[in-house]
């Protein structure tokens, strides 16, 4: 499954992508009592850095 924050980030909406991450993070903590895993936190960090690894191929 593709995380919604990645979809909104690639669509050019960083604010919505970060909001989706915060919502997922809060839901994981509240409902399951866990923190996001390395993949999700890595994606979050890459979004904050506007890392080219998240860009669309050919951009």
From TrEMBL:
It comes from the Bacteria. It holds the Pfam family BTAD. SUPFAM superfamilies: TPR-like. Residues 9-48 form the Bacterial transcriptional activator domain. This is BTAD domain-containing putative transcriptional regulator.
